[in-house]
Design goal:
Type Iii Antifreeze Protein Isoform Hplc 12, 5-stranded antiparallel sheet
């Protein structure tokens, strides 16, 4: 009886499904290879490396050039106080004035007004000064009271003609002030002239109050201004907002 019970129990256990062994697992499908994506990744890496190399090369190929920091008028030369040096990427298509060429370029004249922040290039200068087309330069010898005390090169001004006839004709006759001379202004000779140069003889200015300057004006305005200047009948005022 005991033998049969063991046999029956063993038969019951053998009927249970056996667990699959490790070697009996289903095979996984092979991964799909994408050679096009791999080639694209390699290409992007190469492009990035090339771009980084070019940036490094450009950063290393730099030159020291002249930059204008104070406004320079047409016909004027550069002064040490007008310029500073900056580093820029070298470009053979742009004729930068290199810092080592500063002494040479100071012997040249600006062809037109050069504004602060401008990088100087060779095309901006000429050996001889030349006036812009349609402009004329008129010299003035002014007395104290005929010009603003703070006038300087580059200022925009108006030039007025002021009467200089003797006051005797005003006092004679009926005193009405008609005819004869008048000390009143006769209107603007030039509305917007630019001061080109101001005399640098400070001692003469302090001792006498006289001032010499040149104005850059339209050619059409030059004859009347020169005539009034010769007669000492010109007064200069700053243009509002200048």
């Amino acid at each position: 009886m005991k033998i049969q019970e063991r046999t029956g129990a063993g038969a019951g256990r053998s009927a249970a499904p056996a667990q699959p062994s490790v070697g009996d697992r289903l095979p996984t499908p092979p991964r799909e290879r994408k050679p096009a994506l791999a080639a694209l990744a390699v290409l992007l890496i190469l492009v990035g490396a090339l771009g980084a190399t070019m940036l490094v090369l450009q950063a290393g190929d730099r030159i020291e050039v002249v930059m204008v920091k104070n406004q320079v008028q047409a016909g004027d030369s550069l002064k040490d106080s007008d310029v500073t040096s900056v580093m820029v990427a070298k470009d053979d298509s742009i004729h930068y004035v290199e810092w080592a060429q500063l002494d040479a370029i100071k012997t040249y004249k600006a062809k037109s007004t050069i504004y602060p922040g401008t990088l100087a290039v060779g095309e901006m200068f000429a050996k001889k000064a030349s006036l812009p087309a349609g402009k004329a330069s008129v010299g003035l010898a002014l007395k104290e009271g005929q010009y603003p005390s703070d006038i300087k090169a580059g200022d925009v001004v108006s030039a007025y003609r002021v009467g200089a006839a003797s006051s005797g004709s005003n006092n004679s006759g009926n005193g009405s002030g008609t005819g004869g001379g008048s000390s009143s202004t006769a209107g603007a000779l030039v509305d917007d002239a630019r001061v080109n140069t101001v005399a640098e003889d400070d001692d003469a200015t302090v001792s006498t109050g006289n001032l010499s300057l040149t104005l850059l004006v339209d050619q059409a305005d030059a004859p009347a201004l020169a005539s009034a200047a010769a007669a000492g009948e010109v007064a200069i005022v700053h243009v509002p907002g200048n």
